[in-house]
Design goal:
The complex is a heterodimer.
Chain A (H helix, E strand, L loop, with lengths): L1 H29 L2 H30 L6 H6 L6 H6 L5 H22 L5 H25 L23 H30 L4 H32 L10 H26 L3 H24 L12 H25 L14 H32 L6 E3 L1 H21 L10 H7 L1 H17 L7 H22 L7 H10 L2 H25 L2 E8 L3 E4 L2 E12 L4 E11 L4 E4 L2 E5 L4 E5 L1 E4 L3 E12 L5 E11 L1 H19 L8 H12 L8
Antiparallel strand pairs in A: 2-11, 3-4, 4-5, 5-6, 5-7, 7-8, 9-10, 10-11
Chain B lengths: L2 H30 E5 L1 H6 L8 E7 L5 E3 L2 E7 L4 E7 L11 E8 L5 E7 L9 H9 L11
Parallel strand pairs in B: 1-2, 5-7
Antiparallel strand pairs in B: 2-4, 2-6, 3-4, 4-5, 6-7
The chains are: A alpha+beta, B alpha+beta.
Chain lengths: 671, 147
């Protein structure tokens, strides 16, 4: 019965979304306040209905209602409760339902919190948001209905893929979707503004918090996914340039560019056409990502739950949305008036460079991701290739170098016309820190790749440059400590957020460098009691025991690690076997210190002709890997801090304008 | 600085960057395209000894042997088979009779030495290339993908 209610409200949401496309749009065209206000109510209603539908599906999973085909295929009565719930979105239909739910919630958020938006803009935003909603709701209702019944109901389910039964992965898709789908807000604002024909600094201020929120979620989601792959897949790697990873990374690159260019719109009323275009492109990448993941057109380690027939539907949505938005852009963009002029060396100039490089980076990733598809189509299936990590490393890294180098300089330049020499003087300290870091790294790790110390130097460069900029702003050491403290606490949170996020980037770069340059790996076979040597450690397999978990059996190794000073560490890697799925997973044992991860994997066992049982053992020393997650976490923290800035709240601009005369004498806080 | 100049500068800068990007892509693509072949493809074409490529097919039943941390097995597309040797930890989903994609190069004695066995998340998953190859060789059975 509850599933039928779910089905009913889902269809109702589709109908309401359909009405929400038309009514506010007509209202905005006619200047009819009642019709426009109707849009807000429908947006809220649509969100409530989808929450109900989602709750109905969750209920079916929680009570293990195997008369639903979806529950039968993806759940099992013995599964722990957390994974019964996360099983709701661990499959195609459920994850698409979550997709539209998040879309509708964003729409409702605009309806509720966007009280100070001009009514026509708000109505049009809601209408555009509903257009996307209609497309995806139709997709769910007609091709991917989660509420299909089975008759008779099977006694028990087939279980969720054991690899997905993990807390990290339980929360990875929701975060990722909050990010992906969040960029729909920037898209809707862009399309609405194009229809409206009015794009000004206020538009930049309205669109920025939504972009920032989406960016924060996406950053967190990607980091969580990468962390999961690191500890769950047992390969010791954290990023594989896999098509599905790229699918989430491309919106991130464009989203980051959008985040920066919308600052220029807000502060300088410039770069408006470009920012609109970027907003459209960012969401296009989100749609492309959804298409790549859901259609299974690309071979990927991540493609589970995919179906080519559904791919066509999403491809149509993608083409219509992107094509429509870009045509609208081509038609209306010439009417967008250019804003303030700026010299090449200026804050705007630096942000333009940021945008160009991020766009270029995204384009190379896109090309590498789609190239196998293009070649496959061009040769009608005769040539099948894959584009591996070497391509991405060789194209992506060189583009990042100038971007990262400029990251320290940009914030030190003034708007409109900056003074490069003055900035360079301020960055002497950063240059010194970078050189010191390069030298120190060369001495500490003389046998690593030659480029690695320079990457560490680059990380030191941004970190110091960012700190120099931040301390100049609070006049650290130049003014009494009390004065600096007062300035620090009075700093706009958006500014502190930027400082924090840029510092996070420095930590991230150091982590990536360490993890990719200085990793050591050992693959060997050990019987109980045998010892192998890796770097400074002696690795002994002390015991292997068997046991039972909630819905799996495990084999657990006990490894004793002794370093040169005789200090010991014990590690317990596991192999788990899930009888329901007939599948095993690897649970790596990871010992984290601030400087490195020790990473042990227990492989399969076999018995030698002499009758001793031997296990394949894989052991990694992954230097600085924890810095990757730490860096991402700091970036997320920076984003959240910036998001909490009062000026980012949709209602804030008016209040700020009232206060404006009082603060106009003080130099505007730069961002 | 006139608007005209600003625009010109932006256009020049973007063109320069796009050029640099294109150069990067072209040089990188050259070395990092990894082709996919089936055992039948290998019989038809000459492949240089040092060329890295992916070999896909089914792990022939009863062909898996272990010695130390090295595993040897045969990959088949049901018309031809290729012996494969791999040193390391096999992915959890590696099994006899299942689809497999191995990355590596061919030795002069005809053995494919894999540096990597690609794992899939799902035991019911057949690598797309393998499925296509089986279809091409006419050995595809509809039930096979679900097994």
């Amino acid at each position: 019965m509850i599933a039928e209610i779910g089905q009913f409200v889902l269809v109702l949401a589709l109908i309401i979304a359909g009405v929400q496309v038309v009514v506010p749009m007509v209202g905005a065209a006619r200047g009819d306040g009642t019709l426009m206000a109707f849009g807000s109510r429908m947006a809220v209603a649509q969100a409530v209905l989808l929450i109900l539908a989602f709750a109905a599906l969750t209920h079916a999973f929680v009570v293990s209602d195997f008369s639903l085909a979806l529950v039968f295929q993806n759940s099992h009565s013995l599964k722990p409760m957390l994974y019964k719930v996360s099983g709701v979105w661990g499959n195609h239909e459920g994850s698409m339902l979550m997709w539209v739910l998040i879309l509708a919630v964003y729409g409702a958020a605009v309806a509720v919190f966007g009280r100070n938006l001009p009514p026509t803009l708000k109505a049009r935003v809601l209408s555009v948001q509903a257009m996307i909603g209609v497309a995806f709701l139709a997709f769910i209702v007609f091709t991917s209905n989660p509420f299909l019944r089975l008759n008779p109901a099977p006694p028990d389910g087939t279980g969720l893929n054991p690899l997905l039964q993990d807390p990290g992965l339980a929360f990875h898709p929701p975060l990722l979707y909050l990010g992906y789908v969040g960029f729909s807000m920037a898209f809707s604002f862009a399309v609405a503004a194009l229809i409206e024909g009015r794009i000004d600094a206020a538009w930049g201020r309205w669109v920025r918090p939504w972009t920032l929120a989406a960016w924060v979620f996406l950053t967190g989601g990607i980091a969580l996914g990468s962390w999961w792959a690191y500890y769950e897949l047992g390969w010791g790697g954290w990023w594989f340039w896999d098509p599905v990873e790229n699918a989430s990374f491309m919106p991130w690159l464009f989203g980051t560019a959008l985040l920066h260019s919308s600052i220029v719109v807000e502060k300088r009323d410039s770069l408006k056409s470009w920012t609109i275009l970027l907003a459209i492109l960012t969401f296009s990448m989100s749609l492309l990502g959804t298409f790549l993941v859901r259609s299974g057109v690309l071979t990927s380690v991540h493609t589970f739950a995919s179906d080519p027939a559904r791919g066509i539907f999403i491809l149509m949505i993608l083409l219509v949305t992107v094509g429509g938005a870009l045509s609208l852009f081509a038609w209306r963009a010439p009417t967008i008036r250019g804003g303030g002029l700026f010299a090449p060396v200026s804050r705007e100039g630096a942000l333009v460079l940021n945008n160009m490089l991020l766009t270029l980076a995204c384009a190379t990733v896109l090309l590498g991701t789609l190239y196998p598809l293009i070649l496959d189509a061009a040769s009608s299936g005769a040539s099948r290739v894959s584009v591996g990590p070497p391509y991405f490393n060789a194209t992506f890294a060189p583009i990042m170098v100038p971007l990262v180098a400029a990251m320290a300089i940009g914030p030190l330049l003034a708007w409109k016309r900056g003074n490069l020499r003055a900035a360079a003087r301020k960055l002497l300290l950063a240059a010194a820190a970078a050189i010191a870091a390069v030298a120190a790294t060369f001495i500490a790790v003389p046998d690593g790749p030659a480029l690695a110390p320079f990457a560490i130097g680059l990380a030191a460069w941004i970190a110091t440059g960012t700190l120099v900029e931040g301390s100049a702003r609070i006049r650290l050491f130049a003014a009494p400590a009390a004065e600096s403290w007062r300035r620090l606490t009075g700093l706009p949170r958006a500014a502190s957020g930027m400082t924090l996020a840029h510092l996070g980037m420095a930590v991230l770069i150091a982590g990536i460098t360490g993890a990719s340059a200085w990793r050591s790996e050992l693959i060997t076979t050990l019987a109980v009691g045998e010892t192998a040597q890796i770097k400074n450690y002696a690795l002994t397999l002390q015991a292997v025991e068997n046991g039972k978990g909630p819905n799996y059996n495990f084999e657990r190794g006990t490894f004793l690690l002794t370093d040169r000073n005789g200090a010991t560490i014990v590690m317990y890697p596991e192999r788990r076997f899930f009888p329901v799925a007939g599948q095993s997973t690897t649970e790596a044992a990871i010992k984290t210190t601030l400087m490195a991860d020790l990473y042990a994997v227990l492989g399969t066992s076999r018995t030698t002709p002499e009758g001793t049982e031997q296990w394949t053992v894989r052991f990694f020393i992954n230097p600085m890997v924890p810095w990757i997650w730490l860096g991402a976490l700091v970036m997320v923290g920076g984003g959240l801090l910036s998001l909490s800035d009062r000026r980012h709240r949709v209602g804030a601009p008016r209040r700020k304008q009232q206060h404006a005369p009082g603060v106009s004498g003080a130099p505007a806080p730069a961002e | 600085m006139k608007r005209k100049h600003q625009r010109l500068l932006l256009v020049l800068a973007s063109l320069g960057l796009v050029g640099a990007g294109a150069a990067l892509v072209l040089t990188a693509v050259e070395d990092s395209l990894v082709f996919f072949y089936t055992p039948a493809d290998l019989a038809e074409r000459e492949i240089a000894g040092d060329q890295l490529f992916r070999l896909g097919g089914l792990v022939e039943a009863g062909s898996v042997r272990q010695s130390g941390s090295t595993t040897t097995f045969r990959v088949t597309d049901l018309t031809r088979t290729v012996p494969v040797s791999f040193t390391g930890v096999l992915p959890d989903l590696f099994r006899e009779g299942q689809g497999v994609v191995a990355e590596g190069s061919l030795q002069p004695d005809g053995t494919f030495v894999a540096s990597q066995i690609l794992a899939k998340h799902d035991e019911t998953y057949m690598p797309k290339e393998v499925a296509d190859a089986l279809k091409k060789s006419g050995r595809w059975q509809d039930g096979a993908a679900a097994q």
